[in-house]
Amino acid sequence: MAIEQNTQYVFLVDDEPIQNEMLKDYLSEKFEYKIKTYDTGEGAVKDLNLNPSIVVLDYHLNAHLPNAQNGVEVLKSIKSINPNTKVIMLSGQDKIEVAVESIKNGAYDYVIKGETAFNRMENIINNIDELSNIRAANKTYRNIITGLVIGLIAIILLSLFMVTRLR
After folding, report:
1. How far apart are alpha carbons 37 and 11 in whole angstroms?
2. Contact between 109 and 124 (Cβ < 8 Å)
C-alpha cells in the first residue's frame, strides 16, 4: 500500500467501537487528518509505518480481550518505535495515579472520558498542531540564519583575501 507523501494520520485506539466512531466523526469535522480506528493496540502498532502524528489511546484496552495489551503497554511500544508521535491517553479512569503513569511513559496528555472529552481532545490537537507549526518555522529561521552567517563569513574571507592580494 502506497503512503501519500503529505498525509497526516491520527489513530484512534479504543476497544469500544461506538466511542471510536463518535470521536472519528467529531474530529473529521474539525481537522484534515486521515483518521484510522483500531480496536486493539496491537493493530495500531502494526500500522506505525504510516507515521501517525497523533494517537488517541484508550487506557483500558484489555477490558473485552483480556489477552490484549493495555494502554500503557501500547503507549510504551509506540514511543519506542516512533518517539515523536504524540499520544493522548483517553480513559474512564478518573485517578491521578493513572494519569501520572501515562505521562511518565510518554503520553502527551491525559483526557478523562465524559461530556467535555471531545472538546478537550480538539483543544489538545489544536495545541499539537500549533506547536508543530512553531517548530517548523523555527527550523526555517535557523536555516536562513545559518545561510546568512555562512554568506557573511564568505564575504569577510573574500574581502580579507582581496586586501592581502592588493598589498
Report:
1. 6
2. yes
